[in-house]
Amino acid sequence: xxxxxxxxxxxxxxxxxxxxxxxxxxxxxxxxxxxxxxxxxxxxxxxxxxxxxxxxxxxxxxxxxxxxxxxxxxxxxxxxxxxxxxxxxxxxxxxxxxxxxxxxxxxxxxxxxxxxxxxxxxxxxxxxxxxxxxxxxxxxxxxxxxxxxxxxxxxxxxxxxxxxxxxxxxxxxxxxxxxxxxxxxxxxxxxxxxxxxxxxxxxxxxxxxxxxxxxxxxxxxxxxxxxxxxxxxxxxxxxxxxxxxxxxxxxxxxxxxxxxxxxxxxxxxxxxxxxxxxxxxxxxxxxxxxxxxxxxxxxxxxxxxxxxxx
Amino acid sequence: xxxxxxxxxxxxxxxxxxxxxxxxxxxxxxxxxxxxxxxxxxxxxxxxxxxxxxxxxxxxxxxxxxxxxxxxxxxxxxxxxxxxxxxxxxxxxxxxxxxxxxxxxxxxxxxxxxxxxxxxxxxxxxxxxxxxxxxxxxxxxxxxxxxxxxxxxxxxxxxxxxxxxxxxxxxxxxxxxxxxxxxxxxxxxxxxxxxxxxxxxxxxxxxxxxxxxxxxxxxxxxxxxxxxxxxxxxxxxxxxxxxxxxxxxxxxxxxxxxxxxxxxxxxxxxxxxxxxxxxxxxxxxxxxxxxxxxxxxxxxxxxxxxxxxxxxxxxxxxxxxxxxxxxxxxxxxxxxxxxx
Amino acid sequence: xxxxxxxxxxxxxxxxxxxxxxxxxxxxxxxxxxxxxxxxxxxxxxxxxxxxxxxxxxxxxxxxxxxxxxxxxxxxxxxxxxxxxxxxxxxxxxxxxxxxxxxxxxxxxxxxxxxxxxxxxxxxxxxxxxxxxxxxxxxxxxxxxxxxxxxxxxxxxxxxxxxxxxxxxxxxxxxxxxxxxxxxxxxxxxxxxxxxxxxxxxxxxxxxxxxxxxxxxxxxxxxxxxxxxxxxxxxxxxxxxxxxxxxxxxxxxxxxxxxxxxxxxxxxxxxxxxxxxxxxxxxxxxxxxxxxxxxxxxxxxxxxxxxxxxxxxxxxxxxxxxxxxxxxxxxxxxxxxxxxxxxxxxxxxxxxxxxx
Lengths: 310, 340, 356
What we know:
The structure holds 3 protein chains of 3 kinds. Chain B is an alpha/beta fold.
């Protein structure tokens, strides 16, 4: 392709690049990023796991009827090992364990994701603000964060359950309240690092207000950290939910992996040797945590590789 | 291409201290090889100072690090590095350890990162002494104090940590470390790059004095030609991993033979020279990508005097007295005089 | 690209026109930190930049030149003194600063660090316009700016990222980003010191081209005297927060009068002979521990050879140079003594014909 005559101070455009349209599309980097993640074995496996679980969770109402989940209407043999028609056996009320695991994923995933969203919003928000406004507001926020770090999560969760009532809400709140501090500290440290770099000064010189600085310059550079942190936080939140529900703080009427483990223990599945009741929820938790962790690592790897100069 | 050494002037015997032939270094980071240097030839007599000039990516630091085999494990090095008659590339690791520091040492670039922040400078100077020589702690400490004195740092600072010193002082400490075991060769990699003009003058003056007093040979690497011109006997100019010109420093800078040397010299104006007043000397374009095998002269894309025959084949170096340059425009190229 | 500059503005007639950027009695003191006292980074500076002029601000690290530069673009609040743009006082209000930023822009030392790694080149150049809400014709203005700095064709670079460009190209992008707002002044802090030698000249040529094409004035902060020779009309030498000498480049660099300027020039390594002069001993100055009286007196080679009574005068404070663009000014009580007591070695530097 022809180029206009060169001025003595001109820089030659690299020959190998094809010409682009006027302003580059916003979504091209997102597409490229997704492809990079999928190209990594860990990314691919992680995404497959997550898609499978999420797909099953979302589509569950299509093939599981409320009657299958009702304790009173279940028709299967009681606490029976895996057999034809019940690939994972049945629970003490005759419900298919497989149905329960799939249905339970809805609650576990929902709580995990909601709790993570709350954690990220509060944690990242406080981290960004305290990192940017370093003086008194920043220090004050850090003191608040330190105070929350000192709160023990389990007693807090129990106390919340006593006050608000058992169930998904109190569990979600308990998880958020005890997790946001980790994110806040991480985001604050990254904010401080980013703000020390010259392009922040350049943006200020160009006329950016504090708000514009945070949203346009700092946040995009902290976002990779937030993304990676989210994937790992979801894993932690799902584990936390399972733990709290297992301890009996959850809604007794809803099904989740934690509640399955809880019921299994309460109903003496251990002594009865009903392994098919205990192991599937545990493995489900394991696999989904693995999925999130793998995706988190792949995302981190891709984001680091893109920013590192060669 | 060898520049004949001036043994008559130094009177130190017939063999050069350092004789490098055909040094070719390829890095293998990741999947693509990087051709860092190609066919570099250098000689250095005892007590002589050689300046290696070039910009980032020219290969000058690679050459310097390869002399003591300090390159990363994934690099391939071919050629010969004869130090005091012995080919270091064939030496075993035990011999290399003995050579390193006791016979040839390095003053690294960026003194702040080259010094261990959690060790006192006294400990860092005595460390090589204790490693290489059979002296006790007391004697080594005394030597360290003497060294600090000779580089202009008060010897009571021997218990200070690097962060307690200024940039200029840290650079002096690096020099004291390099001299700790009385080497015959010191390699200074960008010794004054981060320093201000006045501190730079202090460091350069100190370096030249120490080197002269002790009869040490010096290889100084810098992108700043004026620094090399004022301290070195000979200059070797590198571009894209190849040696493009060598010769006595005054001549290489005063009347450069290679167009790149000319451009590089032009980048540093002489104050008072009307030619550079309001007229900065520059060079359009960028250095080539060392991941690719370059055919022809590597400087061809940016050369103001380029011709078709520059773009393919190997442009050999032409010797002109005690100078040499790898360019078709050097007088004597056509006649095939002294192609090496 | 800027509606104000269709033809180059001729160089102002000094003494008659209002300076485009001016610092009056500027002082910036950083509060004390652990283990150190207060740092008087800038301690009484008067400096004026004429329209279309290139002024080099030379000094070593710790002299306060970078702080002064940042105050001149409004990034640092002065402890005392005023900044004037085109004769008008700069008010540090939100709107005042925003308006100011459209006229005075900044170029930094590290071009790679100065670009947000997550922004492609198009967005990096467009950032200034977006911040000011000027979205009309955005891409066209980005193209024009990139062409102005010699990156052609511009759309080849739009979706590249900073790490894919060379240092020289990155710096051009930074300059293009500054140009989109149509400033009249560029303040550059060591714009070429982290670039390769051969690229340095190209960027310096670009500054001169922008001055010729757009009438841009430039204040270039550097430690490199050669840079002043290459592109500046006037040069100001700074030491420990004060300007010690200012004047036209030919005057100051070839016939320096302040002992510090002389020491600086003597310390520049010579390209023509193998010789290094260690002119000035001691450590670079520390703004938290200022000497009494003339800041330079502990290291001053002139003072060392003056008779006792004159040397004592150096313990009185160093004069602050008043504003005045073309006058040659030297902040030393004993300027005339120099030629009498120690003949100047830099006389050999005077070429027989040097005209502006």
